[in-house]
C-alpha cells in the first residue's frame, strides 16, 4: 500500500510544469519597478530580459530610458545608437530619445540633428510635439537638411565622451588629455571637448598653457559658460584674485536649463569658496540627472559640511560611495 502511494506521489511531482521566466516576464517586472521609480531594481530586471533576448530592441530601449532617468545619458545614448544601427528606422522613437539626452548634456547641435531626424521620419509621432518644443527651447528655427552624418561617427563620439567623462570624474588627467586631443582632431565642432582639455591640462600641472588656451576660447565666445567656470577655477587655484572675481561673478546670474551645466556652476562655486551660492545651486538640481557624477557627491557633501550640516554631508558621502566605490578611496569632507 505504501509502495503504491509513493508511486502516485512521484507521478504527481513529475506532472508539475517548471516555471521558466521569459524575456517578457523580466521586461514586465522591470517596467513595474521603473514606474515605482526603483531604478536599480528595474535595471536588474531589464538586464535579465536582455540576456534572455539580446536582439530585442524593445528591451534595449526601455533600459536606455532607465539610464536617462538616473542621469547616465552617455550610457543611454550608446544603447540607443546600437538599436538604430541594428534595426534601421524600425524604432524611430530612438531619434527623439537621443535628442532629449543630448539636450541634457548641453550638446545642442546633436540634439538638433536627432530631433529633426525624428520629425522627418515621424512628423505626427508620439514625440512630435516634444521634439518641436525641444527645437524651440534651444532656439533653432530652421532645419538644416544639408548636413550629412552617420551613426558610426556618432557612436565613436559617444564612446569618446563616455570614456573621457570617466577619466575626468576620477581625476585621471593624463588619460583624459590623450583622448581629448584625439577628440579635438576627430570632432572639431564639439567645443566642449576643448574646454575639458584645458581643465585636464590645468590639473595635470600645465597651468599657464591651460589658462592661455581658455582665454583664447573665451575671446572666440565671450559668453561661454565653460570658459567662465574654468577660468574662475584656474584663477582661484593660482591666487589671481582680481581675475578670479571677474569670472566667478559672471556666473552668479547665470541659470542654465541643462542639469550638467547647472552642476558645473554649483561645483565651481563650491570649489572656490562661494559656499552659500553653491548650496543653493546644488539644491536646485534634478538629482536623478546628476547621480552619475562623482563630483556631485564630492562637492555637495563638502559644501553641506562646511555650512554646518554634518549629517547631510555624511548621508551624501555614503550614498556617493555606494554609487561610486572609487569615492571611498578619497578623504571625506570632514578630514
UniProtKB/TrEMBL annotation:
Spans through the membrane: none
Keywords linked to the UniProt accession: Repeat, TPR repeat
TPR repeats by residue range: 23-56
InterPro entries: CellSynth/LPSAsmb/PSIAsmb (IPR051012), TPR-like_helical_dom_sf (IPR011990), TPR_rpt (IPR019734)
Keyword Repeat appears in the UniProt entry: yes
Protein origin, superkingdom: Bacteria
Entry keyword Repeat: yes
Protein name: Tetratricopeptide repeat protein
